[in-house]
Design goal:
This protein is an alpha/beta fold and 197 residues long. It has one domain: Rossmann fold, CATH 3.40.50.150. The protein has 8 helices and 7 strands.
């Protein structure tokens, strides 16, 4: 396994995890798709989209961005609108006069970087967003399952980062189970929503 999220091996690992037969039979992503839809993000800029798992649920007009060209190739092969960070920068050499997207989604992204890198990522993409930022991070047990994770973030940490870049925290939730489950259940997530003032 590669500890580099830009590698082809990392993209293959995402595909293998998503395609596990037991996950397909049980449709384990159903509650997560439901949760994503209920957030009402509208047209979304999905930064760190990986192979496009969330893009399949987001509304039409959403765009995925990822620094891993192999992951983007998989997302595009699924018919999803996804580009590399370099392609995004080529499309948008300067921030737009009017934001193009309703929301910014960072799902399982910030834990792969330092806090300062995370702040930089938020600042980089905020000019493209009109109203909402949604951040989803694994809780303790999930954090330990990936060697590419760099920084553990709980709800207070995430809200603090969002507030540092000028947003107002709307909600901090644990999903799908209460917060204490995150110490044992790999797939428990912290979901934080914040809005532009």
């Amino acid at each position: 396994m590669s500890d580099d999220t830009t590698s082809e091996a990392y993209a293959q690992r995402l595909q293998q995890r998503e395609g596990a037969r037991w996950k397909q039979l049980l449709d384990v992503q159903r509650p997560y798709r439901w949760n994503l839809r209920r957030l009402g993000l509208g047209r979304t800029l999905d930064v760190g989209c990986g192979i496009g798992r969330n893009l399949t649920t987001l509304p039409s007009g959403s765009l995925g961005v990822d620094h891993n060209p192999s992951s983007i190739a998989v997302a595009q092969s699924r018919g999803l609108d996804a580009v590399t960070t370099d392609e995004f920068d080529a499309r948008h050499p300067q921030p737009p006069a009017q934001p193009e997207y309703d929301s910014l989604l960072l799902s399982h992204v910030l834990e792969h970087m330092t806090r300062d890198e995370g702040i930089g990522l938020l600042e980089r993409y905020l000019p493209f967003v009109r109203r909402t930022v949604a951040v989803i991070c694994p809780q303790e047990r999930g954090y330990t399952t990936d060697a590419t994770h760099v920084t553990f973030l709980d709800g207070r940490d995430i809200a603090g980062m969002l507030e540092q870049v000028g947003l107002r925290t709307r909600s901090v939730r644990s999903f799908p189970f209460p917060r204490f489950a995150g110490k044992a259940f790999t797939y428990n997530e912290t979901v934080v929503l914040a809005d532009r003032p």
